[in-house]
Write the structure tokens for this entry.
Amino acid sequence: MKLLGLSAKDTRFLLIVIFLTLATPILLQPFPEGSGLATFNAGYPDLMQRFAIFGIFAIGFNILFGLTGYLSFGHAAFLGVGSYTVVWMYKLLDYNVIWGLPLAVITSGIFALFIGFISLRRSGIYFSILTLAFAQMSYNLAYSVLTPITNGETGLQVYTSDAQVLLGPNEPNTPHFFGLVMNQSTKLNLGDWQFTFNNGYYFTAVIAIIVFYISLRIFRSPFGLMLRAIKTNQTRLNYTGINTRPYTLAAFVISGMYAGLAGGLMAAMDPLAGAERMQWTASGEVVLMVILGGAGTLMGPVLGAGFIKYFENIFSKINDQILQGWFAWMPDWLSGLLIEISHFFVGKSWHLTLGLLFMLVVIFLPGGLVEAGQRIARLFKKKPPQDGGKDPEHHPQPAPHVAE
Amino acid sequence: MGILEVKGVGKRFGGLQALSDVNLSVAENSVHAIIGPNGAGKSTLLNCFVGKLIPDTGSVMFNGESLLGRKPHEINQMGVSRVFQTPEIFTDLTVLDNVMISCFAHRDGAFRLHPFETVSHETDIIEQAEKMLLDVNMADKRNMHAASLSRGDKRRLEMAMCLAQEPRLLLLDEPTAGMARADTNNTIDLLKEIKEKRDITMAIIEHDMHVVFSLAERITVLAQGTPLVEDTPENIKGHPKVKEAYLGESV
């Protein structure tokens, strides 16, 4: 079966992605409520929305970093631009996200064009430093000079005194999409299991599927081939008559627009925008997501985003009390010891677990989680893969991530 | 009037006068070799043709148009292709992808935004790239990763990539550097075959006299940044000035 200009293999791949995305509220809720393992359930709206939003952010970042080999440390700036744009549309027009989201993509695209035009004069480490400088500049400006636009430290939010010229009498007072209110959910109870189907999640999930499809098309296009060639050997490309600048700029702007969309969706889920979204740690996080999942692969960034957000939200929740519950059946001295050890890896120390995992992945699985999946799949297959290395984005080489 | 006309070219790097007053004319559809001892300025001269360096003085004309101040990709789009001393290919991609990139560059020019076309639907480009690989006897390696090729095959691939653009002038920078005698002879045969099959001008920079005398129709000898003599291979062989420049190297 072939759909939407994709090959049979890609169509199958896309259908699996669509199924997994739509079934997320069920798949992430494998343990019954009230059981000891219920802590590991991740099927609540706030977290699922974050999976989808950061998935979009990472998919876009992968086009620049994974495909083109340009490591930007400033993509959080576009996240912030997207958020501010959407909140401003709430303030000026009304709570319908239809105005803000397309505009967020456009404004972040314009910002990316400007920042990319300057930063792409250099490559490698100098490019990374330039993007970092721009993002930190945006962050500091948002806190200081641009307070009239960003509302400084308080963060931008909607007040009753705002114009909201399109606001109708019966319109919901929170973000919605033509009446589909983002923070509303339908709950389904099946025995001990409880599933939450949240409007906001499904809204972001549908957008995520669309932008995933766009990224799939870019991967398979001559444009994507050129981007991959830039990552491999820019010198040869220049002497093959290709002007690499517009290609890298296009990749930068596309990834900036993805980031702007993700930032806009954050504000669509929660009508707030703050400067902390632009901080360099947020830029660094998306780099971790892409590397952890597998740079240059289609699914990797999404997996990486899910993985990191899962750790951030689930492992940080596990406190000593929960640990005591788990180890209660052990002798006191043993449970005490185990709690002391686990203490370093969960709760507030979840960063340590993530850091260790990240180190293990980078050292032993340069292709990220996708490579781990491939290795496991190979164990179950009897014969070695015949097409080894046929499809470069599914068999990432341990090549340097940054274009020379 | 040759296809490549070099007049009075000079280039200085700090205190070193790398090139001074170089005059050179490469006739269309000929094979012209530029030889000279180490440090004679051969590579500097070649870099002046492809836009990597801009000479301080003089002019470089290709097909009646000046090449000075143009970027490498612009010069390439005018019909000048370059083969590097160490093969420059896209090691992360397959052999076929490598050649297809050249075919795209030839068809679509220096930049074209085509994010929603699909590479596997471009049957013309694929056919063309496969034909090119057939020409250099690499058709059976089309799905291999370019990184896993032998050095000789990398050279062939690079040649196929250059030829896919149907250049009018092919510049070769020591195409047999570091090769064993057998590989060198294969490269000579390949170049001869290429020359027979199409109208193409070749300018070769080379150290290996065996290669030069097997291929070149005219030879320019460069020493200390200036052309010493320019003549046919037969006349160059016994030239006293050339012997002097090479100081005992077998000519």
